[in-house]
């Protein structure tokens, strides 16, 4: 095969590639023309000929009523979000987009925002905490510390011993909670009697005659003293208590068992 023959084959192939490229460009060009013709002759006339309507106000209506009203006017409805923490009742529309009064084409999508009501939080337990700890505990859940009232009690000084709302109560976020703080022990009127050396039975009777009670019994091993003999007491002799208060006793007991405690009921 001579050199001219090879040249002819490559020339033919080059011409064919050129023809295919031109056809591809022509087809693409025709497709673009057809697309613009469809937009201009079909889609645009449909849009331009759509009815223009005024968006009604649905703020304050229930989700159901708002949806029905808008759909009856030819609008599409989308519930965009449910928001808590506003004053609009639960289930009511508090905002719409676009706003009421605007003139738009029929079929426009209207976005509605539904109220979830006022957000509530759970009241934590504050008993046993300090005032500062109570303040931080309330703020962590979205509540505020209210009035701090000091009262005499048998709880340690500056300890919260009661609160306005019990633990677990649901309150609106941002509400205040009052607390009651101990200002120290109440001054007693009854002098604690001396019980050391008495038997348990005698100690119980002496305390009862003084309008006091036996508190915790702490048993101590002793093989030299009679069982149930009072070795010590708390509070000690001379302190002042109120009627019904308890006095803890330390009582002897024979044996080799470890010390143990129990409470007279």
Average pLDDT level: 82
Helix-strand topology string: HEHEEEEEHEEEEEHEEEEE
* Record field, number of beta strands: 16
- How many H/I helices? 4
Beginning-to-end CA distance, first to last residue: 125 Å
Major pleated sheet: 4 strands, mixed
Write the layout of secondary structure elements.
Layout: H1 3-48, E1 52-54, H2 63-72, E2 76-83, E3 93-97, E4 103-105, E5 109-115, E6 120-122, H3 131-140, E7 144-151, E8 160-163, E9 170-172, E10 176-182, E11 190-191, H4 200-209, E12 213-221, E13 230-234, E14 240-241, E15 246-253, E16 260-263
Parallel strand pairs: 2-5, 7-10, 12-15
Antiparallel strand pairs: 1-4, 3-5, 6-9, 8-10, 11-14, 12-16, 13-15
Overview of the molecule:
By secondary structure, the chain is an alpha+beta fold. It folds into 4 domains: 1-49; 52-115, Trypsin Inhibitor V, Chain A (2-Layer Sandwich), CATH 3.30.10; 120-182, Trypsin Inhibitor V, Chain A, CATH 3.30.10.20; 190-263, Trypsin Inhibitor V, Chain A. Helices cover 29% and strands 31% of the residues. It contains 4 helices and 16 strands. It has helices at 3-48, 63-72, 131-140, 200-209; strands at 52-54, 76-83, 93-97, 103-105, 109-115, 120-122, 144-151, 160-163, 170-172, 176-182, 190-191, 213-221, 230-234, 240-241, 246-253, 260-263. The strands form 6 sheets. The chain has a 4-stranded mixed β-sheet with strand order 13-15-12-16. A 3-stranded mixed β-sheet has the order 2-5-3, covered by helices on one side. The chain is elongated. The model is unreliable at 1-7 and 257-265 (pLDDT under 50).
Short précis:
This protein has 4 domains: 1-49; 52-115, Trypsin Inhibitor V, Chain A (2-Layer Sandwich), CATH 3.30.10.20; 120-182, Trypsin Inhibitor V, Chain A (2-Layer Sandwich), CATH 3.30.10.20; 190-263, Trypsin Inhibitor V, Chain A, CATH 3.30.10.20. The protein is built from 4 helices and 16 strands. The chain has helices at 3-48, 63-72, 131-140, 200-209; strands at residues 52-54, 76-83, 93-97, 103-105, 109-115, 120-122, 144-151, 160-163, 170-172, 176-182, 190-191, 213-221, 230-234, 240-241, 246-253, 260-263.
């Amino acid at each position: 095969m001579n050199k001219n023959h090879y040249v002819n084959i490559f020339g033919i192939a080059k011409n064919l590639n050129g023809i295919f490229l031109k056809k591809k460009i022509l087809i693409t060009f025709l497709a673009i023309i057809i697309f613009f013709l469809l937009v201009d002759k079909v889609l645009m006339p449909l849009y331009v000929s759509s009815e223009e309507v005024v968006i009604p106000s649905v703020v304050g209506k229930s989700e159901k009523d708002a949806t029905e009203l808008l759909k009856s006017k030819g609008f599409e409805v989308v519930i965009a979000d449910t928001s808590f923490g506003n004053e609009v009742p639960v289930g009511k529309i508090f905002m719409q987009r676009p706003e009421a009064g605007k003139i738009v084409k029929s079929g426009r999508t209207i976005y509605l925002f539904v109220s979830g009501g006022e957000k509530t939080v759970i009241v934590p337990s504050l008993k046993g905490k300090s005032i500062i700890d109570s303040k931080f505990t309330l703020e962590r859940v979205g509540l505020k510390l209210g009035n701090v009232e000091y009262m005499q009690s048998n709880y340690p000084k500056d300890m919260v011993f009661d609160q306005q709302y019990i633990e677990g109560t649901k309150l609106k976020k941002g509400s205040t909670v009052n607390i009651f703080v101990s200002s120290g022990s109440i001054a007693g009127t009854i002098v604690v009697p001396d019980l050391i050396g008495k038997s348990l039975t005698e100690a119980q009777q002496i305390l009862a005659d003084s309008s006091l009670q036996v508190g915790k019994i702490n048993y101590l091993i002793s093989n030299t003293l009679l069982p149930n003999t009072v070795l010590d007491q708390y509070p000690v002799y001379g302190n002042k208590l109120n009627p019904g208060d308890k006095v803890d006793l330390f009582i002897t007991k024979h044996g080799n068992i470890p010390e143990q405690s129990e409470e007279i009921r």
